User: Fold this.
Amino acid sequence: MDSIERNVKKIIIILLAAALLGATSANAQQNWGVGVGYSMTTFNGPDCSQFLAKHPVRGFYVGASHEFYFSALAGLTFEPGLYFHYQSGRNDTDMKPKYIKMHYLSIPMDLKYTFNIATGAMASVFTGPVFNVGLIGNLYDKGVFAAQGGLVKDVNDLRGLTRANLQWRVGAAVTFAEAVQLRFSYAFGISRLIPEQELHNNALTVGLGLLF
Assistant:
């Protein structure tokens, strides 16, 4: 797992370098986009508790992205972004707290390839790392879910989730009239959500974007 995280960090550095090259290129174009949509996080891994595995959190995301076009590589772009995710779920046990909450920022850094599919319509596929930073939510707090046995199988480990984690995502988009975009993505957890515990998070997003 540590070697995977090191390799992902190297990829992030390469993508950032690509962004700088694109931004400084005399012929590079740049577009902004804003987006909003549905967001869901599920939890898994050998050490994930049964309680956490059965309680995904759902909500919405909102944010913006900035797309760099490379004149030498038609259709290939670099698209970093910043998104806020508001997620919660109901605790269906008889124990408090009644709601499970996790609100965080995500910073995707995608390489995207776009191609025409019809007059006025384009399709895109993208992939890249996502760095998440937890803001507020009881999933980050120690001991909140002690009555449910904690977040991992070791009932003596009552730590909350770490506030920083890394994912790798893949996705697709369809853009109409170069202005309205439908997007879908799925991110796979790479880093551990609790040190020394194989607990990971996967994230699904489906949303609408506006380009300008």
